[in-house]
Structure formats: C-alpha cells, structure tokens
Design brief:
The protein is 64% helix and 4% strand. The chain is built from 14 helices and two strands; from the N terminus they run αββααααααααααααα. It is mainly α and 396 residues long. It folds into two domains: 2-68 and 79-294, no CATH class; 312-395, no CATH class. The protein is elongated, with a radius of gyration of 26 Å. Helix 4 (116-139) runs parallel beside helix 6 and helix 6 (170-205) packs antiparallel against helix 7 (212-238). It has a two-stranded antiparallel sheet with strand order 1-2. The mean pLDDT is 91. It has helices at 2-37, 81-99, 102-105, 116-139, 146-167, 170-205, 212-238, 242-245, 250-270, 280-294, 312-322, 348-353, 355-364, 378-395; strands at residues 47-55, 58-65. The structure holds heme C.
Length: 396
C-alpha cells in the first residue's frame, strides 16, 4: 500500500514540477523575446522601446521604460513563484524518487560500492557546493570578465559531471548535475534578481536612483540562467534515454550535449544583433551530429561465427533471477507495486514476445537490470545476446 501511495505522490509531484517549470521557463523565454524584439526606434522620453503583438483574439501593446516610471501602478506583476515552486517540487521529487530508494536509483555497484547514505550525501553536497562555487565566482573580481566567467562555470560542471559519474549511477549523476544547475538558477532569482527588483521598486517610491550595481548583477545572473535552460531541460528528459546516462563516458556525453544547448541558445540570443556570428548554429548542430555518430553502437557479436543459439528456455533462469523481482505482476522488490512500465517478464511466452525490448534494454542500452542491482554477469548478458541473435537468424 505504501508503495502505491508513493507512486501517486510521485506522479503528482512530477506533474506539478513540470507545470511550474513550464510556467517559469516560458515566462523567462517570453521576456527574453520581448527584450530582443523591442522596437527601439520608437524610444522617446523615458521609454526605451515598444512593440505590438496579437495573441488569443486580441492586440497587445507594450512599452519598456529606460529606467522606471515616475510612479508605480497599483498593480505590479512579479514573476518569482514559478521559479520557487519549480525548485521545491523538484527537490521533493528528488527525495521521494532518488533519496527514498537510493539503493536502487543512486548506487550502482559497477560504478562504486556506496551505502545509500553516502550516495545521498554526495548528491546533496553537489547542490550546495555548486551554488557556493558559482555564487563566489560571480561575486569575485573575475566576474568582470564575461568569457572567463563562462569558462569557469563550464569547467565546474565538467568537473562535477566527471566526479559524480565516478560515484553514482549514471542516471543519478545526470539528475544531480541538472538539480545543481536548477538550484543555481532558482537561487539567482531568490538571492540576486528579486532583491534587485525590490531595490528598483523602492527607488521609485523613494524618488531616488536605483543601485546600478544591483541591476548589473541581476542582469548577469539572468543571462546565466538563460544559458542554463537548454542543458537543464535536456537533463530532465535524459532519464528516458539510457544511451546517454548509461554510456561509459556519460559525463562527456552530458558536456557535449550541454555545449550544443548553450550554442543553440546563444544563436537565438545574438541573431538580432548587428554583430552576430551566423556560424554558431551550424557549428552547434555539427557538434551534435558528431556526437550522434560517435555514440553509435558497435555490433558486439560476430553473428556469422556463432553456431549454437540458445533457445528461450535456457535464458529463463537468468530472467527469473535478474529481472522478475521487479518485472512481475506482483514484484518482490519493495520499491515497486506493479511491473515497471507494465513490462511483465514471467513465463517463456512473455519473454519471447518481448525479445526486442529485452535485447535493447540488456544489450544495447545496458539499462537493465536497473543499476545492475540484481548483479547480472557478463556471461549472462552474452547468453541473452546469443539468444536474440538466434531468434533473428531463425526468422530470416
Ligand atoms: C530493480 C528493479 C528492476 C530490475 C531488477 C529490472 N528492471 Fe527493467 N525496469 C525497471 C524500471 C524502474 C523500469 C522503468 C525505467 C524508466 O522509467 O525509465 C524498467 C524498464 C524496463 C524495460 C522498458 C524500458 C526500456 O528500457 O526498454 C524493459 C524492456 C526492462 N525493464 C527489462 C528488464 C530486464 C530484461 C531485466 C533483467 C535483465 C530487468 N528489466 C530488470 C526496474 C527493474
């Protein structure tokens, strides 16, 4: 029963996390878009520019003030709760999904022999240390050099991805890099961007000039957030793609995809500027194509030389020992109330019918058994590969 309710909690949290995340990133993309499309030739008397838009059956007319209006309106809209709730739901989800079941989702005995507690400790430390490093960097004199700052932030995440991949399961390593980036983004909103906006508002009320340094810091942080969006969104969907987090060089795969994401974001940011480099987009896509090519699976078995193909009955003991604790109508594994994703592996017929996805999960992606928790040996994997090859052969 407990597992049943946990599953619902999980679903609702994920749903909420997704909705608040969409609202937050959507608003952030929208304001970025406004900034880029402002008609600056219409600037006059305290107005930096304006723009017209049509949406949902009406016309909208917006103006941006160069600094601030003389008086504030009765109703001023803020955008912050989307960000805070994205983090809160995300963190609770991290707890219920990963920390609650750390033995299954975070520890991978092929990577490192950790206790659940150690794995959780590493996970939380990665969030805290990332913020401390990043915030310290932004407050240091180094931050005046934009390119250097970007390089150092990237170097931090390279180091973090590599370190996490040495200790945690690939999936947990990825999600913690994502959670670290997300934490930085929300902390930027909470500690820097919103305080700067509060100062703006107070300045108008007190008829003084706003603190220019606060404005500058907020601008830098929201720029960083803008570049973080594509990598963080990739990481959030990456758990569906075992070919990325399950790769032996998963940390490098993550870095390359993040570079592609940052490159694409950069192209969208600069394409309106007079001094822009059109090469940014094709170079990013080229890098992506190179990655896709480099990751293509090598056929491991020499099918031609293979003479004996084991029938399904010979692999049943392996499936029974390594898979059925989870993939049963009533799983023995305490973490599951029903077969994960409805994949039932009880009985020869079920296994025969699902040969392709079994081969895919066990041999191609090597994502199953989950974190190799049931300790499938290489010989057993080979047996399954040969079984599958035999089936293919007998069909032709
Ligand atoms: C500890 C529990 C556990 C064990 C043991 C386990 N699985 Fe899974 N399996 C899962 C979970 C959880 C998912 C869903 C993963 C997701 O949501 O991405 C899954 C998904 C799958 C899928 C569908 C998704 C995919 O990756 O194609 C297949 C097929 C699969 N498992 C096969 C197997 C086989 C074969 C074995 C034994 C060699 C096995 N599993 C062992 C928990 C387990």
């Amino acid at each position: 029963m407990e597992v049943y309710f946990l599953e619902w909690l999980n679903l609702l949290l994920r749903w909420a996390h997704f909705i608040t995340g969409v609202a937050w990133i959507g608003a952030s993309f929208y304001f970025n878009w406004l900034e880029n499309h402002l008609e600056r030739q219409n600037a006059k008397g305290g107005i930096a520019g304006d723009l017209w838009a049509v949406h949902g059956g009406g016309f909208y007319y917006l103006q941006k003030f160069t600094v601030a209006p003389e008086r504030l309106p009765a109703n001023l809209h803020w955008f912050k709760w989307e960000a805070y709730f994205t983090w809160i739901t995300g963190f609770v989800l991290l707890c219920t999904l990963y920390y609650w079941n750390a033995g299954v989702f975070m520890v991978d005995s092929r990577v490192a022999d950790l206790s659940s507690l150690q794995a959780v400790g590493i996970g939380i430390a990665s969030l805290v240390l990332s913020w401390l490093f990043y915030d310290g960097l932004c407050r240091s004199p180094l931050a005046r050099k934009q390119a250097l700052t970007a390089l150092l932030i990237f170097a931090w995440f390279a180091l973090l991805s590599w370190l996490l991949s040495q200790f945690l399961s690939g999936r947990a390593a990825y999600i913690h890099v994502g959670a670290a980036i997300g934490t930085i983004m929300v902390a930027n909103v909470f500690f820097v961007i919103i305080p700067s906006q509060k100062d703006l508002v107070e300045a108008v009320n007190e008829q003084r000039l706003p603190d220019p340094q606060k404005g500058k810091n907020a601008l830098a942080r929201s720029r960083h957030n803008n570049y973080f969006t594509l990598p963080v969104l990739f990481i959030m969907i990456s758990s569906h793609y075992a070919g990325t987090f399950g790769h032996p060089l998963n940390w490098l795969v993550l870095l390359v995809i993040s570079m592609v994401g940052v490159g694409i974001r950069h192209w969208f940011n600069i394409r309106h500027l007079e001094k822009h480099s059109p090469l940014v987009l094709p170079l990013s896509l080229l890098l992506l194509a190179a990655l896709i090519f480099a990751l293509r699976p090598e056929p491991k078995l020499d099918l031609v030389d293979e003479v004996t193909f084991p029938p399904t009955a010979t692999i049943m003991p392996v499936i029974q020992a390594r898979c059925v604790t989870c993939h049963a109508a009533k799983p023995d594994h305490p973490g599951f109330a029903a077969a994960p994703l409805g994949v039932l592996l009880e009985g020869e017929e079920a296994v025969d019918l699902q040969a392709l996805i079994i081969f895919n999960a066990v041999i191609v992606k090597q994502s199953m058994p989950l974190a190799n928790i049931t300790q499938m040996s290489d010989e057993e994997r080979d047996l399954i590969a040969r079984w599958y090859a035999g089936r293919m052969r007998s069909k032709n």
